[in-house]
Design brief:
The chain is an all-alpha fold. The protein folds into two domains: 83 residues, Arc Repressor Mutant, subunit A (Orthogonal Bundle), CATH 1.10.10; 149 residues, Tetracycline Repressor, domain 2. 62% of the residues lie in helices and 0% in strands. Helix 5 crosses helix 7. The N and C termini lie far apart (48 Å). 24% of the residues are buried. Keywords: DNA-binding, Transcription, Transcription regulation. It holds the Pfam family TetR_C_1. One of its GO terms (biological process) is negative regulation of DNA-templated transcription. One of its GO terms (molecular function) is transcription cis-regulatory region binding. This is TetR family transcriptional regulator.
Length: 264
């Protein structure tokens, strides 16, 4: 409980710079920025109290006068990202486009800071960054007809999809870097071998679909396509829920008839 209170205090309140053991001229913001830069450059595994202290030119014990432990440091890092992230203006009156924009903003966050997608969202940092982000993103569902719990669940659903997509993209890049081949190069090299292995008579559907998908997407997995296709299905699912609500007619952001769920 004491550590949790300490983290909340660090997230919300400025601490006096004169605290005993601190380096003159070094601030908590500089500590957090150094940790973020390290994670951006080398990944989350590189972030430790000792390594961040090294980057700042101080001994590890000095760092502990700013942050109690690595868990608190990670909370501060994520909340700083949330506070600084782009929040696109909700110019479209329809909920669908507003939610699409929220998804895009979060995807861009993970593009710039891939390590953030690795962290669990089950216990987010309860700081000003998170609260500003939550408030902004909830507005995307205003007027949709969802109740409070459904709105929270819908946002969690969207953000979970974006985070999963970001993780998949990071993993695909890591595989390409380890193999020193692009997906297209891997597919070109593996295709002739797979032709010999796959039995068209035994696996007719798998061969037919796999060939078509591979030819269209340039490999077994295409992160851009997976995100675009998946986001539309997420929005379609939410549209089905929203359109089921009683009302005088179709809600803003949806349309009735063939192709319902597409943008207004």
């Amino acid at each position: 409980m004491a550590e949790a209170r300490r983290t909340i205090d660090l997230l919300w309140f400025e601490e006096p710079q004169s605290r005993r053991g601190r380096k003159k001229g070094l601030s908590l913001t500089q500590v957090v920025d150094a940790a973020i830069a390290l994670a951006d450059a080398e990944g989350l595994d590189a972030v430790s109290m000792r390594r961040v202290a090294q980057e700042l030119g101080v001994v590890p014990m000095t760092l502990y006068t700013y942050v109690p432990d690595k868990a608190a440091l990670l909370d501060l890092m994520v909340d700083a990202l949330y506070l600084r992230m782009e929040r696109s203006a909700a110019g479209d009156p329809g909920w669908r486009e507003r939610v699409r924009t929220v998804a895009g903003d979060n995807r861009m966050l993970y593009e710039h800071h891939p390590w953030a997608a690795e962290l669990s969202a089950s216990r987010p940092p309860l700081g000003p960054g998170l609260m500003a982000k939550y408030e902004h993103e909830l507005r995307a569902f205003e007027g949709s007809g969802l109740d409070n719990v459904e709105t929270d669940s819908a946002l969690t659903f969207v953000l979970g999809f974006v985070q999963h997509s970001a993780r998949a993209a990071v993993q695909a890049r890591a595989v390409a870097e380890r193999s020193e081949q692009t997906d297209a190069q891997w597919w070109e090299e593996s295709g002739p071998l797979l032709e010999k292995v796959f039995d068209r008579h035994r696996y007719p559907i798998a061969v037919r679909v796999g060939e078509a998908a591979g030819a269209e997407l340039g490999g077994a997995f295409n992160a851009e396509h997976a995100y675009a296709f998946g986001l539309e299905r997420v929005l379609d699912g939410l549209a089905a829920l929203i359109e089921a609500r009683p009302g005088p007619g179709p809600r803003a952001g949806t349309r009735s008839g063939p192709g319902a769920g597409a943008e207004a």
